[in-house]
Design brief:
With about 140 residues, this protein is of the alpha+beta class. It is about 55% helix and about 10% strand. The chain has helices spanning about 30-35, 50-65, 70-80, 85-125, and strands at about 5, 15, 20-25, 40-45.
């Protein structure tokens, strides 16, 4: 069920959560969304849906305070292409995460291989390696 938030105009631009019958802050909206709630923000005077503007403001405030984590590339794509770019970017997230995990595993394996090769080099320097026919290398 969608949680309806009413935005009042004026200097404070208060937000009123109809379900809980209380005013909420802009900072509370991301917490609602992270808990899986759908949020719809309506202008109190016109009844117009201002959800997109409010969520954009949430993102702006989060970025302004250093907690956002959105890349400049993603923001450029969103501006250039709108909602379609965001959906396409989000569709790429799971494969990117898998690729990053694969890269981490590969890095660990390469570090192990490097240590093994270093150990092998030290061992072979201490004693001569003989070829099958007894010739030294």
């Amino acid at each position: 069920m969608t949680r309806i938030i009413t935005r009042y105009r004026g200097g404070s631009r208060k937000l009123y959560d109809r379900r809980e019958s209380r005013y909420i802050s802009l900072d509370e909206i991301p917490a609602l969304i992270r808990r899986g709630e759908d949020v719809q923000v309506l202008d109190s005077r016109t009844g117009r849906d201002v959800t997109a503007q409010t969520l954009a403001q949430v993102l702006y405030e989060s970025e302004r305070h250093g907690g956002g984590g959105l890349s400049a590339g993603l923001l450029h794509d969103m501006i250039r292409q709108g909602e379609a770019a965001l959906r396409a970017s989000l569709d790429r997230v799971p494969p990117i995460r898998r690729a990053q995990a694969d890269m981490r595993r590969l890095e660990v394996s390469l570090e192990r291989l490097d240590r093994s090769l270093t150990t092998l080099e030290h061992v072979t320097r201490r004693r001569p390696v003989r070829h099958r026919r007894g010739a030294r290398l």
